[in-house]
Structures are given as C-alpha cells and as structure tokens.
Amino acid sequence: MALIPTASSPKQLRCSQCSLVKLCLPVGLNDEDMMQLESIIETSKIYKQNESVYRAGDPFHHVYAVKSGMFQTVAIDANGDSQIVGFHLPGELFGLDAIYPGHYTSTPVAVSSSIACSIDFKELSTLATQMPSLQHQLLTLMSKEMHASHVNMGDHSADQKIAGFILSLSARYKQRGYSANQFQLLMSRKDIANHLGMAPETVSRLLKRLINEDVLDINQSDITIKNMKYLQDTVGH
Amino acid sequence: MALIPTASSPKQLRCSQCSLVKLCLPVGLNDEDMMQLESIIETSKIYKQNESVYRAGDPFHHVYAVKSGMFQTVAIDANGDSQIVGFHLPGELFGLDAIYPGHYTSTPVAVSSSIACSIDFKELSTLATQMPSLQHQLLTLMSKEMHASHVNMGDHSADQKIAGFILSLSARYKQRGYSANQFQLLMSRKDIANHLGMAPETVSRLLKRLINEDVLDINQSDITIKNMKYLQDTVGH
DNA sequence: ACGATAAGTTGATATAGATCAACATCTCAA
DNA sequence: TTGAGATGTTGATCTATATCAACTTATCGT
C-alpha cells in the first residue's frame, strides 16, 4: 500500500522531488548536499486561506520557503494600522528579515490555501558554512529581495506603483515557468492597495484605465497583460 | 620614523584597530579570525566629496564597508531620473544588493569626504564558510537592511517619511556611539527629498514646521532633536 | 438557491503635496 | 572681496489621489 500524505501534513520533504528545486534554496546543490538540506526541513504544512504561519513578535527560529500558493506578510504598527510588507510566491523565502531583530516583525498569512516548508535557521546556517553553494544561494535570495525593494523605491506615482507591481508578479511567475502574460491576481484589491500605499478606489480606477487602454484584461482574479511595453514605459526601468 | 599613512591611501586595514569593530563585519570574530578578515580587505581608500566608488552597471566583485563619512547610493532609471536608494553610515556595507544581479545597480557617491574598505566578495564568502560568526554577521547585516526597508514601507505621509528618516539616522548614530539627539544632516535637502520621494520644498516646509513646534532645532547641517517622542508618535512604530 | 456580508466599482468632493515662481542665503573661485 | 552658481526658503496655484458616499457584484453559509 502506497504512502499517502495527509491533507494537513504532506510529508513530501524531498527538495529533489520539488518543482522549485531550480529557484529555492537548493539551487546549485549536488545530490548529497540536497539530501542534507532535506534532512533539516522540519515540516511542509498546508495553510488554509487566512491562516498564519507565525505571529509578529514571536521569537525567530525558522525561515520558511513557499512551496505552493502565496503568503502575504502583514505588519501592524503602534497605531494598529496594518501594512502588507510583501507577497511571497513559490520558491521564495520569508522570515529572513527577522534574523537581525531576533523576533518576527510581521505575520505571514496564506493568501489562498498554500504550503510552506519550515527550516530551522540555526541548522540552516550551520549547513551553509559546510556548503558554499547553499550559503551563496541564501545570500543571493536575500540580495534579490534587497534589490527588488530598491527598484520599487523609484515608483512614485500610483500608476508607476501599479505597473511595477504587475510587472514584478509577471517576472516572478515567468521565472517559475508560468506565463508572464497571464496569471492569477490572488490577493484582494484592498490588499494590493495597502501594499502599495494607496486607496483601494485608486487601484480599481487605475486598473480600469489600463483595461480601457488595452494594456490589461481582467476577469475577476485572472489578469492578462496585453501590452507589456506600456507597463515597462510607465515604470521606466 | 613612524609609518604615516598618506591622505589618499590610509594603510590602516586592521579591523582590530578600527572603532567600528563592534558594528561592522568583524562582530563576533576572535582575534585569529579577525586577522584573516583583515587579510582580504583590499583597500581602505579616501573618497572626496561627490567621488564615486563604482558605477551602476559595473560587474559585481566587491562589497564595501564605510569606515568614515557617508555614502549615498544613486540609481538612474531608463528616463534618466535618479533615485537615492540609501545613505550609508560608518560600519554599514554597500554593494550587497548586487550579489543577485551580478552587477551593481546603483552608484555610491561620497556625501562628504569619506573612507570605505573594499572587500572581494568571493573571498569574503569563502571566508564566511570557514567562520560561522562571519557568515552570521553578514546575514545579520543584510537582514537589518531588509528589516529597515520593510519598516519604512509603513511611512505614507510626508510627515511620517521625514520623521522616520530623522529617527533612522538618530538610531544609527546612537548605535555608533554618537548622540541620538544631535548630529549632522550631511546630505542636502534636495537629496533627502529625492530619497524620500518628495519635493525639496516639502522637506523645507516640514522641517520648518517641526522647528516651530519645538520638535527640532536646525542650524545649517546641524540638527538637534528636542522632542523624540513627537517623531516616534508621528511614525507610529 | 437565497439572503447576508464582504469586496469591488463609480462618482463627487476635499486635501496633501507637487509645481511654478520669486527671493534669500550659502559656497567658493578668482 | 566680489559675484555667480548652487542650495534653500517662502508663497501661490494646481493636481493627483485620498476620502466620503452610494451602488453593484461576488462569495459563502444555510
């Protein structure tokens, strides 16, 4: 009888079997190293929509790799205002910004039903000292996130922010082997607005304008980019 | 006769002698490890005001540690608009966002006459695999930068951005052993405005308002914070 | 399938901050 | 020391986007 993973705990912790092996932490590892990495992945758990992985304020012990779906990291400030810091796609890590303060500063919430792999950071960094490729990939993933946030700083107008946001998702989906021109906008308009620092009404209006100008096509959460160049010209990079 | 370093090339490459040993890369290293780190620091060069360390587009080989003064990293987009991505204080690194793309994406310019240490990244990462503490500090410094940019995302209004900017400098100077309440605003108003994504006129007006409300005192580049709590309440974190 | 609740859209209005313009002050080279 | 260009300030106006409000459409539990 075959071993069937349960819904709440898919025991497939084999990076080597995972489709994200070319994007996630294992990039550049040989088979033996990958087995060692697999051995420190503690769980690979399904999170239901709106379920959170940990809470802002919790002590930092693990970093997480998105296996499927999407997580958004939400920070709450002293006034109780929430800020969606980022959206995390399969193959991306979250929790790394907690290394420095030693506790998490945002709460990752599953945007749709999603799977994340949990990795003890102490074990990960120990392993990284033994595996130059793993260390390099960890640094690369962090550099990538720094780089992305620097690029976004240049987007000042609401149009630039929206265009930049769509282009970023497009590029990241493309990297993951999906279409760059057609994908799901899984998060709500309200959350897009919050993340970009604008009103939901503005998101709605600007998306409508892009649809009218034949730049985009949107059916509920399904988005098609019909004029990529227009978006690129809008952001100017 | 004592060995006197020349102005253009201060040959003091000893981290152990550097006042930033508690903040910069050497944090947590023992004497022997520190000597090894010292051995891969290639130069510690003085940059005149407005002089740049490298150019955006150059291939990535080195990361830099600020030894004294201040550097600002400037990115130019396709439309020729420049964006000041960050200001770097002594003990901070720059160039790390280039690991991922493999080439620099911004140009670091000395805000005032400044010194930076140049470190070959390949050698640094090799060393980091041999020294868990060095690897940890490298990851910590990157995490710190990610964390800071996430915190800044919450600042939406111009007041919040200015307050957040001043508080960030204050905290960083304090960490470096300087007063949290009094320091030099070395960069120009125009550059502050550019960095924060607002008009220089707005910076001028808001700073004036903060002076009138007895929150700040400013004499040319010298700034005194008279009401830290007001600034903290403004940003709300 | 139905109604309740949330999410999204559209329009009208208000406002924070950009832009334009004039002036003031600083910096520094001759 | 002067004066020219850069930097900063102040005021008047304009505009992008927030806010408020009403409505429509989707979602989901029963």
Kindly describe this structure.
Two copies of one chain form a homodimer. With 237 residues, chain A is of the alpha+beta class. Chain A has two domains: 15-137, Jelly Rolls, CATH 2.60.120.10; 158-235, Winged helix-like DNA-binding domain superfamily/Winged helix DNA-binding domain (Arc Repressor Mutant, subunit A, Orthogonal Bundle), CATH 1.10.10.10. In chain A, 37% of the residues lie in helices and 22% in strands. Chain A has seven helices and ten strands. The first copy, chain A, has helices at 31-40, 121-130, 132-152, 158-175, 189-196, 200-212, 228-235, and strands at residues 41-47, 62-68, 71-76, 82-88, 93-94, 107-110, 114-120, 182-184, 216-219, 222-225. Chain A has a four-stranded antiparallel sheet with strand order 1-7-2-5. A three-stranded antiparallel sheet of chain A has the order 4-3-6. In chain A, strand 3 (71-76) and strand 4 (82-88) form a beta hairpin. In chain A, helix 5 crosses helix 6 (200-212). The longest helix of chain A has 21 residues, at 132-152. Chain A is globular and about 55 Å long. The model of chain A is unreliable at 1-10 (pLDDT under 50). Chain A binds chain B through residues 75, 77-79, 81, 83, 85-86, 96-101, 105-106, 125-126, 128-132, 135-136, 138-147, 149-151, 153-154, 156, 197, 235-237, and chain B through 75, 77-79, 81, 83, 85-86, 96-101, 105-106, 125-126, 128-132, 135-136, 138-147, 149-151, 153-154, 156, 197, 235-237. Chain A binds a DNA duplex (30 and 30 nucleotides) through helix 6.
